[in-house]
Amino acid sequence: MSINEFMSHKHRECDDVFSQAENFVAEGKWDEAYKAWQEFHHELDEHLTMEETVLFPRFEEATGMTQGPTSVMRMEHVQMREMCDKLSSAALAKDQDQFLGLSETLMILMQQHNMKEEQVLYPMTDRVLGDSGSIIQAMENHGNQ
């Protein structure tokens, strides 16, 4: 399995849980919504952390590029985490309008971010690093720590 395939699959898993949370909020099912939101928030944070602690450093070491695509991705990670904090507050307050408005913004941000990773960064990473199996294993092991 390539890094692109593995990480793109992770993107879809996060998207599915995010969609569940949005649907529960729209239906006013706050217990289910909060549970799905917490699951999404955890999955997203794990995904971003895998990239920041395993994938990006290996890419940067192999290419010498520290101000390139990984720098942009890290900046977007900060934006997504800030948006998630606001969404968590809206979920706790059971503020449907606030949650759904912020979730639309986060979805657009994630879609643009994922497209850049899946079409540019991950394919570059597969070409440059080559040994996708050990990198995927390192990312999975990081998530289990």
Automatic annotation (TrEMBL):
It comes from the Bacteria. Residues 3-124 form the Hemerythrin-like domain. InterPro entries: Hemerythrin-like (IPR012312). This is Hemerythrin domain-containing protein.
